[in-house]
Write a structure and sequence with these properties.
The chain has helices spanning 3-11, 13-25, 28-31, 39-46, 50-62, 79-82, 93-99, 102-107, 111-117, 122-127, 131-137, 139-163, 184-192, 204-207, 214-217, 252-265, 287-298, 306-315, and strands at 37-38, 66-68, 74-77, 174-178, 197-202, 224-228, 240-244, 271-276, 278-279, 304-305, 318-324, 332-338. By secondary structure, it is an alpha/beta fold. It folds into two domains: 3-86, Winged helix-like DNA-binding domain superfamily/Winged helix DNA-binding domain (Arc Repressor Mutant, subunit A), CATH 1.10.10.10; 168-338, Rossmann fold (3-Layer(aba) Sandwich), CATH 3.40.50.150. The protein has a seven-stranded mixed sheet with strand order 6-5-4-7-8-12-11, sandwiched between helices. The radius of gyration is 22 Å and the shape is globular. Its EC number is 2.1.1.-.
């Protein structure tokens, strides 16, 4: 691809993601299979306008997520498209519906202003609440947000377990995952290491809605309990604390407050594992450098370099021990011990 073509491809990137969003929103990926169907049948079953349906199906096919027959107007799903089905084991449908949905689409218009005045968190500017308050007051957004977090969790859990291969859990009995959501990571760790027990510190709405939680799905209710609380106020005692994609939501002062609360409850031998996208050296292209701009728009937080994480650990009473990475280096697992 030439430099001109690459630039054009990036400029029109949002068209592509919005086309896929529309396909997911209309149920196209969940409806289609590898057996081709006529456009008229698709439009009828999904209650779509047939000419418009053909045009969106054709565009999705041009991106490789559907396949249009050579004679036209018959479509089937491809392996790429299957990743956007809700029943796929590694579904990205929730991520697509959240990141290309109306709330997240709108906040990007504030980016130029943020860069000029230094006042980040466009979510507050656009909706009058931070992202977590908004989710608490908007059931439809909350549903999509939690759906996306489940998709993210499945990806991150696999990478964390890969990064922690060979990690010594022998002196650990109890793990507390702070802000663990539906408990995907902690449940998979407990499943892998049978001597471990766990607690998940979460806000009241999450604790009161455990029907789809992973401890329940995996039959780990006896070894994994939910505790209602706020990480800015108090955390329970544990041998090991885990925070996955939590600190990047908050600014440095807020992170230091969270880590200091953990430090206060931790024993002298307690450790902490922080799972985040870690910004690499200046010459390395990395997803974290893009996700950082999303954090700028959506929260008060940021993606950080390893040195920046070492700094906030030190300021809250922790010492950096090591950082472990999966093969992809998409995320890092930062280990700290209590000073």
């Amino acid at each position: 691809m030439s430099e001109f073509d690459k630039t054009m491809d990036i400029i029109f990137g949002r068209w592509k993601s919005q086309i896929l969003y529309t396909g997911a929103k209309l149920g196209i990926f969940d409806y289609l299979s590898t057996n081709p169907k006529e456009t008229g049948q698709i439009a009828q079953d999904l209650n779509l306008n047939e000419p418009m349906a053909y045009r969106i199906l054709r565009s999705i096919a041009s991106l490789g997520f559907l396949k249009e027959d050579k004679d036209g107007h018959r479509f089937s799903i491809t392996t790429l498209g299957e990743l956007l089905r809700k029943d796929h084991p590694h579904t990205l449908q929730g991520v697509l519906l959240l990141e290309e949905g109306p709330e997240h689409y709108q906040i990007w218009k504030h980016l130029s202003r943020i860069i000029k005045d230094g006042q980040q968190n466009a979510f507050n500017s656009e909706y009058g609440n931070n992202i977590f308050e908004y989710a608490g007051n908007n059931s439809e957004y909350s549903k999509i947000f939690n759906y996306a977090m489940s998709s993210y969790s499945a990806m991150h859990t696999a990478m964390v377990i890969e990064a922690l291969a060979g990690y010594d859990f022998s002196n650990i009995s109890n793990i507390c995952e702070i802000g663990g959501g539906q408990g995907h990571l902690l449940s998979h760790l407990l499943s892998k290491y049978n001597h471990l027990n766990g607690t998940i510190l979460e806000l009241e709405p999450v604790v009161n809605n455990q029907d789809s939680s992973w401890p329940n799905k995996m039959g780990l209710q006896d070894r994994c309990k939910y505790i209602k609380g706020n990480m800015f106020e108090h955390v329970p005692s544990a041998d090991l604390y885990i925070m996955k994609m939590i600190l990047h939501d908050w600014n440095d002062d807020e992170c230091i407050k969270i880590l200091s609360k953990i430090h206060k409850s931790a024993s002298d031998k307690s450790k902490i594992l922080i799972v985040e996208h870690i910004v690499p050296d200046p010459i390395t292209s990395h997803f974290s450098k893009l996700f950082d701009i999303h954090m700028m728009c959506a929260t008060t937080g940021r993606e950080r370099t390893m040195e920046e994480y070492k700094s906030i650990l030190a300021q809250s009473g922790w010492k950096h021990i090591q950082t472990r990475y999966p093969k992809s280096s998409m995320i890092g697992v930062i280990e700290g011990s209590k000073v």
